[in-house]
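Subject: two folds for Thursday's group meeting

Dear M.,

Sorry for the delay on this. The cluster queue was jammed most of the week, so I only got both jobs back this morning. I'm pasting them in the order they finished. Each block is the input sequence followed by the predicted structure tokens. Could you check whether the formatting survives your parser before we put anything on slides? The first protein is the one we discussed after the seminar.
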Amino acid sequence: MSKYTQKEANGLYELTDAARAELVDSKYYNEDLAPTSLAQRTWTTYNIASLWIGMSVCLPSYTLASSLIALGMSTWAAVINVALGNLLVLIPMQLNSHAGTKYGIPYPVFARLAFGPKGAHFPALARTIIAAGWCGIQIWFGGGALHTILVILIPAYADVPGGLWITFFVFWALNVYIGYRGSESIKWMESVGAPVLLLLCLALVIWATMAAADAGASISDIINTAPNDELMAQSGGFWPLFLSGLTANIAFWSTLALNIPDFSRYAKSQRAQFRGQLYGLPTTMAAFAFIGAYVTTATGYIFGEPIFDPVIVIASIGSPAVSLFGAVAVMIATLTTNIAANMVAPANGLSNISPKRISYKTGILITGLAAVGMMPWKLLETAGAYIFGWLGTYGIMLGPLAGIYIADYYIVKKRNIDVMALFSAEKGRYWYSGGFNSKAFIAWIAGAALPVIGKLVPAAKTLADNGYIISFVVAMIVYILIMKSETTSFVSDEEEEAMTQR
């Protein structure tokens, strides 16, 4: 066949029909991991912004700010913490989106670029395990909301043995079913659900304002509530808590900062994916952080102490109609976020392990089982366990990966990818040594080392408090330095010829 395996239109590349036909027999290829064609890249700025609005308006987003309030931080400090964290994580997210849109490749295939076809199993599985944890957390929230709905509609359900576990597994089945149906189902759900979710959140703010007023607190009192120095002292004071919260907020979307090619590969253009994320992510997260902080602070006046878990807040509302409305909002918010953010990536990651045996749909089923195995009820026991334990730890593990990907794609490969070679075995230019790029693993270890020391040595706690940023920067620098000796040509035949003609 011709040496040309991919063709270009308006800066976007797709495989030729001949190249796709040749890849069918590759053990590293299946239809779920195949690069999208130009015809499949239909997502506009609105679709991508809606995706982010739908993913951002969810209970874990709410608890980012509400947990900081429960730990003693003031309303505005908590909101600023969330907003700053999301502006910072948008940087690696936008940078990693580019390859997905330009070449139509999903995250597990993109990971092969730096780690090699076999080495890519490590970052893909790391992302899969964390996504399964988030998937379980979301389903636990949604199951709790469904339980609240049933108790309101059928009061006798409150006495059903194991009632909460029943609703947990019913909601689990609904998530698995929608995820199983694929990307177009997700696209439709996000586009329809996003504007509805914002209206429902506004209703929660109205309730909190009215209920707090009955308790003698004005809007000004809620917004300007002073920080609780005694509570913050338990976390080391304001700045240690602020830095830990910032790391947690960056870590929150550090998962999507890696596997964003799973979605950006459907974008119509680089402009569409860039603007969609810019409009959808930081603005929605800041607005929803305010809602979480505002309502949690208000519960301090309403119930005598701030309640960071929104499901408990909804169940505590006196009016059955309002509680029902809030529980429905929780379920919609959870569905729109969970499937897109926490089921697509692990399904693709699992498929990448054995493309000929594990399809995307099989990956969805495995992810659903893993979500239960992560025991989300343990991850949400306290605000501290959520912020310091869950979010604060896994961000350290993912930060180096983001740094490596960006260094590899922009500095080492100079935004050029031979897509055909990503699906090739020993003959491929990305095979490195035995399918592994050991230099990527060295950079990952170097990036994670300092923050891990900060977790183990109290005197070095600052390293852990800033773990994502430190691990990101160190891994990026180390990878660039040790890849200088790499002599393999990473430019595809088509792009090499185009550069020669320029």
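Second protein, same layout:
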Amino acid sequence: MTTSTTTYEVVIGIEVHAQLLTRSKMFCSCSKDYFGTPVNSHVCPVCLALPGVMPVINRQAVEYTIMTGLALNCTIPQQAKFDRKNYHYPDLMKGYQISQYDLPLCENGWLEVDLDGETKRIGVTRVHLEEDTARSMHRTNAAGEDYSLIDVNRSGVPLMEVVSEPDVRSGKEARLYVTKLQQILRYLGVSQANLEEGNMRCEPNISLRPVGRDEFGSKVELKNLASFRAVERGVNFEIERQTALLESGRPVEHETRGWRDDIGETVSQRGKEMAEDYRYFPEPDLPLLAIAPEYVEELRAKLPELPDAKRERFVREYGLSAYDANLLTVDGEWAGYYEAAVDIDPGESDRRAARAKTIANWMLQDFAQVVNAQDVAFVGSEESISVRVPPAHLNQLVQLIEAETVSTTGAKSVFAEMLSSGKPPQQVVDEQGLTQISGADEIGAVVDDVIAANPDAVADYRGGKETALQFLVGQVMRQTRGRAKPDVVATLLTERLRS
């Protein structure tokens, strides 16, 4: 960031909170699936912090956190503990939060993002486990008076926090980091990691300092970032705001600011607490956690193939370009569907490689267009598939195209019917009479009709307008419902128009 007087370095660290997909809350047996339920219906004495209650650690939450740390290349220490983080907000039932501070479950990791064709490594300071807070609900009564209510359903939900090193340098890098982290969490199956729904929350900490200086500038934390776009816009706005302050000789306040997506600006919320303000001390009601190396290795063995490894394997095993492999591995279920479609009938290596590329092209173009246009939910497993085209049917459709049983144009109509009815492709072809025709006599009759019906296009072509030929080909394809073989159509049209 260059100004008229000073060159500033942007320094950004990012805290990401993700609710974990456990069945129960962090320290009690209440169901953590509170979304859409009546307020204060998923609560118990532990959630409500009644006197005399004792927390019990959720083993699954610990496992999910360690698995995340392993996926982020973290070291897993042999001991970890929970601490009391003391602060007094209305939505904090106990007056403190059970969290982790100096002995987290995971530390000293990293993840890599693709930044303009180059790989950038961003450090991960720690991954620790804590409990979520209750939720404040702000209302206005009939007299116009504001008041607040508390919904305790969210209180105690397992919340994993991933804290990055201050290695991020722009809004774009922040977006890439959070996007990559979301992808990893979803591959692991430990969190829905949805910013829009609030089960993943991103809080960048932005500061500026003159280039060459080691000391950090005043840090500003951003909240209320409900999308990747908001992450990038919020960080970039804050960089510009702090630059303007420093240029004018005014200090940057150490504070927490909220992002207002409607106006594209950050707004002050409160002064930012420092670690000492929380008065951390060990949680006396919970034991020190002993983490055996053998246990860590058991969890490592449970890790699925992660996005980077899967992308590299797709390039190596299926002969895909890095670009196609990246698109196919953005989502784990999408990638699983692709693999299932390719591997149903592996066949010889040459034929398998060709089919792998054809299926990739189909999924990234026609398949994606139809699915997106119809707003169909997509999941890749056979057990829960909601797109009514199982991988085997896509494989069969591609085989029909390869065998020239159906044209590429006709295949689009076949796929639309497959998506609607769930029928296999051969049945759709047979029922709708979509078998490709390539005979010169049958196609020639349609070609003659099209030439007779479009004298202007014929004149354009004979006058040197080559694009008129494509129009006429399209007319033949429309009349044959995509059944005519396109190269035969083009050949017949050219012969007749030049004769």
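Two things I noticed about the second structure. The CA atoms of residues 115 and 338 lie 26 Å apart. The longest strand covers residues 118-131.

Cheers,
T.
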